[in-house]
Amino acid sequence: ALQLAEERCRKLDGFVRKRDEHLAHVWWIEVAAQLPRVEAGGGAAGEEERKDKSAEESLAEQGKALVLAKQEALAANLRNARLEEAHKVEKRRWEEQLLQLQEQNRKLRTSHGA
Fold it and tell me: What is the pLDDT of residues 20-38, one digit of tens each?
């Protein structure tokens, strides 16, 4: 069960990473489409184009940072899910062992007339 859970987590992790990369790419396309475009030219137009490119690069860096933060949060959530699943498996194992010991104890008491 733990291996199955780990495999599912790995598949989900890969899926989430690919989805986030795709969404980030789509987001950049949408952001770039919304940025004002200035025709290449001299003087003020050239300066405006440099400012636009700088703003676009700044947005790109911010977006990349957001995507990385989201990926880190998703990875932490996956680790927590794995730990929770492992804890549940271990708890069930201990509960089963406790029930077996209680049953053995009951049998010993009844066989010894206690």
Answer: 777 777 776 776 676 665 5
Q: Which of 52, 59, 56 is nearest to 38 (CA)?
A: 52
**DSSP per residue over 76-94, as a string?**
HHHHHHHHHHHHHHHHHHH
List Cβ neighbours of 109 (8 Å cut-off, separation of 6 or more). Answer: none
DSSP state of 42: S
Question: How many residues belong to the chain?
Answer: 114
Q: Residue 45 has what pLDDT?
A: 58
pTM for the model? 0.41
CA–CA separation, 73 vs 87, rounded Å? 21
By C-alpha distance, which of 87, 94, 113, 68 is closest to 1? 87
